[in-house]
User: Fold GCN5-related N-acetyltransferase from Geodermatophilus obscurus.
Amino acid sequence: MQPTSPFPRRSGTAEASVRPARHSDAPAVARVQAVTWRTAYRTVLPSEVLDDWDEAAAADAWRAAVTAPPTPGHRVLVAVERDVVVGFAASGPAELAADEPPHPAGPSSEVATLLVEPRWGRRGHGSRLLAAVTDLARADGTARLQVWLPEQDAVSAGFFESAGWARDGWTRTLDTGGTPLREVRWHTLLQETDGSR
Assistant:
């Protein structure tokens, strides 16, 4: 998929854009996360995760992620339509497994999450968010992007696959305090190992 510009673009009569998240966006980001998880991920995420969700605590965590990121490479972007935050993406340097060597192509970054509220789906917001993450990562010198997806999440897998991503063979199981969550890793190269793009 050819990255599109993260700058505002017109979609019909409504303006749709992607921009860096602001301090004041934190409650909206937490709301999008809660609504999306409870609606689209009800059969994917363990019930313990959804039942114990604390939206106020999530908003505080997102506010901290926006105002005091752990590194300059950690970012939160929001998708906006008609001045409403309808989706978001968070990314940062990839955390590789202890026994995993660095990728030969160069530094890796990770899409920690990319969500669009279901009622705003199929309007290009997910693609704009992914394109903006990709453009920023490439500008930082990142050679490879990766994302962990729940094994059952066929919708997200289809989205990343349509953008040219593929599974890389790594899996992990997360302890959620209840039902374990098995995830598979997808990746894409932003430049070839010889340095060409």
Q: What stands out?
A: Strands lie at 9-11, 14-20, 75-81, 84-93, 108-116, 144-150, 166-174, 181-189. The chain has five helices and eight strands.
